[in-house]
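worker-3 :: picked Signal peptidase I
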Amino acid sequence: MAKEKNEIWEWTKALLIAISLAVIIRYFLFAPIVVDGLSMMPTLHNGDRMIVNKIGKPDRFDIIVFHAPEQKDYIKRVIGLPGDKIEYKDDILYVNGEPYEEPYLDTYKKQIADGPLTEDFTLQDTPGESEVVPEGEVFVMGDNRRFSKDSRHIGTVSLDEVIGNTSLVYWPVKDIRVVK
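worker-3 :: tokens ->
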């Protein structure tokens, strides 16, 4: 009888440890997310399942997940960091006056025949109308520039609202890949 109680206690401890580890990993380190919508096409597709890394701060061109004003989580690409001056002119990104290449858009730009993928704008044309990305915030855009609700519409995103960055698509199996 004592041996049976001991075995039940051991199984209970193992189960509690497993549940605790799962909770810690899920809420503090990594979390799954499902891409909802077409705003990150052609990089990400509607229904792609990804892993969000909650460790570290986002860097330029990272794909991040954040809490949007509509009480919904968005997935977008970081274009501007705190202190950056952002401008688009003739479908070219300028950060602090320097042109930046966006190789992740090359495929999509080739498919567009009627005008630029990204309309001209400056940071002052967006909500908030500031000259530079404010401290503690990032400027984000979807890769599907013509059909993305991003910082051009909702303003910059507070780093406090960022859940984490993501680059690993794990589902569907045929599309498993690391995205850049």
